[in-house]
Amino acid sequence: MYNTEKLKARIVEKFGNQKEFSKKIGISRPTLCRYLKNGSDWKGSYIIRAIRALEIPDSEVDAYFFAPMVAKSEPKEKGR
């Protein structure tokens, strides 16, 4: 699984919402949601369409599509 938060933010920045972005790259909204949920099901052709539509520089592709998930740590209880 990959962290897709940066990708989601770019979609909103460029298209306003995921629905418009999914239309632009030719996939259904549910499919896009699945891709964004786990970040690992993207087909290569859709990644290429997304990179072009979102105007992501080649040097930043990994940061948008292949960023590792970071485990969230539990907050420490006060007084311990």
Descriptive keywords:
single chain, 80 residues, mainly alpha, 434 Repressor (Amino-terminal Domain), globular
Show the helix and strand layout.
Elements: E1 2-3, H1 5-15, H2 18-25, H3 29-38, H4 44-54, H5 61-65, E2 67-68
Antiparallel strand pairs: 1-2
**Averaged pLDDT, please?**
89
Q: How many DSSP H or I helices?
A: 5
Low-confidence stretches: none
At CATH level 3, the topology is 434 Repressor (Amino-terminal Domain)
Strand order in the sheet with the most strands:
1-2
Helix content: 55-70%
Strand content: 5-15%
Rg to the nearest angstrom? 15 Å
**Largest beta sheet, briefly?**
2 strands, antiparallel
Assigned CATH class = Mainly Alpha
Structural class: mainly alpha
Per CATH, which architecture? Orthogonal Bundle
Cα-to-Cα separation, first versus last residue = 33 Å
Principal-axes shape call: globular
Record field, number of beta strands = 2
What's the SSE pattern? EHHHHHE
Structural domain tally: 1
What would you say this structure looks like, in words?
With 80 residues, the protein is mostly helical. The chain has one domain: Orthogonal Bundle (434 Repressor (Amino-terminal Domain)), CATH 1.10.260. 56% of the residues lie in helices and 5% in strands. The chain contains 5 helices and 2 strands. A two-stranded antiparallel ribbon has the order 1-2. The radius of gyration is 15 Å and the shape is globular. The model has no long low-confidence stretch (mean pLDDT 89).
